[in-house]
Amino acid sequence: MSLPALDTEKVHPLPKAKVLALPEKVSPTTGFIQRALPVANSIAARVLPPMITLLLLLGLWEVLASGATSSLPPPSRVVTDTWELITDPFYDRGGLDKGLFWHLFASLQRVMVGYALAAGIGIAVGTLIGQSDWAMRGLDPLFQVLRTVPPLAWLPLALAAFQNGEPSAIFVIFVTAVWPIVINTAVGIRNIPKDYVNVARVLRLNPLEYAFKIMIPAAAPYIFTGLKIGIGLSWLAIVAAEMLIGGVGIGFFIWDAWNSSLISDIIVALVYVGIVGFLLDRCVALIASIVTRGTATS
Fold this sequence. Notes:
12 helices, 74% helix, mainly alpha, cell membrane, MetI-like fold, nitrate transmembrane transporter activity, cell inner membrane, membrane
């Protein structure tokens, strides 16, 4: 008698074998290249587009300004005319004859003082308006009118009040930066979620605990939005204000170069103004990102 053949796959299904590939031996040099290549690609993707755009614009500027009738110097002539300003920004021959570093440093000092005053007072007043309906009704219409006054329109009034150019320039910075800080802080305070307020009531937080544990963290993204707008406006206003008050400062340097028909000096100064303004903006954005743990917009 013959037995039926067993279907071994149905009785005991055998697992399919997997062929594992042994890891290849990678030399240290190859490993470094494999790790560095994605980083290099990422950097190139960020750096190359603006560099190519800049080179194209410089090339177009060089072509358009190279004519005999052009009133603006081409980039090559700007570099030649301002080589000392570019290579030695720290020279100081006394009086107003200083390198660009000292002019920028004087302007930054004025901006920092005016901006710090605007930040402190603006956040305090914005908090008051955000928490009090009476303060909101009383102050908000006044601020909405005052914030539309151009910054330089305050300068004659400041000169009459302070009888000195230095505090007048700082006042112009203050009055330029304070409005966005006040308004954004007030909006942030008013937009604190009701749940947060209810939790504070349940936990019976005192005013100081409420301020540091609920109010400031919740309103921080709005506050830093106002601070970021304020630093940009401050840097814009100081250049214009220094053109009028004179003394050491990047605004006066530009105005003095215009009076001396040094167009190349003006162009170099504008490049420095743009770079410093960009760095100020990035600094405030970095602080905002750290304080708010990335919730503030960059």
